[in-house]
Design brief:
The chain is of the alpha/beta class. The chain has 10 helices and 6 strands, in the order βαβαβαβαβαβααααα. It folds into 2 domains: about 140 residues, 3-Layer(aba) Sandwich (Rossmann fold); about 60 residues, Winged helix-like DNA-binding domain superfamily/Winged helix DNA-binding domain (Arc Repressor Mutant, subunit A).
Length: about 220
């Protein structure tokens, strides 16, 4: 029996553990790695070459949509199912337009997770039962492959925006991305200029609205 190799990426350890335990009960699934960080997820995909990636949208460092974009040009890109608490059609449309093969709401039953894995493994798309496919398709068509407000930023600027919104300082961002403080400051100035936002609080609000980070409860 060919086992489907799965990588789990979610920033909550308990969620990862729960998904892993559920998947281990399936005879044709092997969990090859776990990650709680977007940058680490990209590295683990390169190292383990999973068949399927269960990918949370709200990952620190590099969110799930950015991870998708980093992986989409790989010849051995895994089939990706996005996991999210967000049921809004705009989130779903962005994920599918970015290359996701499926979208699953986190409060779905285990049977639906199993169904999603089986469907995506057969090179078919899967949409959570809680979602209206017609509404999602209208949003996808309206986006026309774009990312709305984030489209004006480069991938590096989006990444730095997310890290700023997560509360990291300039020096720490430089360390995380292996670039100089001056480079981070240049990117920050450029993204502020493109967005017309010139304070950190405004950047945080924009990042929440654009779906880069989740609002704190």
């Amino acid at each position: 029996m060919n086992r489907r190799r799965v990588l789990i990426a979610d920033d909550h350890g308990l969620v990862r553990s729960g998904i892993r335990l559920l998947l281990q009960s399936l005879p044709d699934v092997e969990v090859v790695a776990e990650s709680g960080d977007g940058l680490e997820t990209v590295d683990l995909v390169h190292r383990h070459r999973p068949d399927l990636l269960l990918l949370d949208i709200s990952l620190p460092g590099l969110n799930g949509l950015e991870v998708l974009q980093r992986l989409q040009d790989r010849p051995d890109m895994p089939r990706i199912i996005m996991l999210s608490m967000h049921a809004g059609p705009e989130y779903v449309a962005r994920a599918l337009n970015a290359g996701a093969a499926g979208y699953l709401i986190k409060d779905a039953a285990f049977d639906e997770l199993e169904q999603a894995l089986a469907t995506v493994a057969q090179n078919r798309a899967y949409l959570s039962q809680a979602l209206d496919p017609d509404v999602v398709e209208r949003f996808r068509s309206g986006m026309a492959g774009g990312e709305g407000e984030l489209e004006v930023l480069t991938p590096r600027q989006r990444q730095i925006l997310q890290l700023i919104a997560e509360g990291h300082g300039t020096r720490r961002i430089g360390e995380m991305l292996h670039v100089s403080v001056k480079t981070v400051e240049t990117h920050r100035a450029q993204l502020m200029d493109r967005l017309g936002i010139h304070d950190v609080a405004g950047l945080v609000r924009f990042a929440i609205r654009a779906g880069l980070i989740e609002p704190q409860a």
